[in-house]
Design brief:
Layout (H helix, E strand, L loop, with lengths): L2 H8 L3 H9 L7 H14 L12
Helix pairs in contact: 1-2, 1-3
Length: 55
């Protein structure tokens, strides 16, 4: 899945998608994480937030 496909599916902004994908120190808002995980779980139903973000 490309960054653009993820962004469109999750309905998040370009800047947010860019930061999520490129800045390891960035922690998105809870609502953004929820949107992203909904899309990620379409590909991997067992994916966990901890797989992507330090929470």
């Amino acid at each position: 899945m490309t960054q653009e496909e993820l962004r469109e599916a999750a309905k998040i902004g370009r800047n947010t998608a860019s930061r999520v994908c490129s800045d390891p120190e960035y922690t998105p808002s809870a609502s953004t994480i929820k949107k992203l995980m909904k899309v990620v779980r379409r590909v991997d139903p067992n994916a966990k937030v901890d797989d992507f973000f330090d929470m």
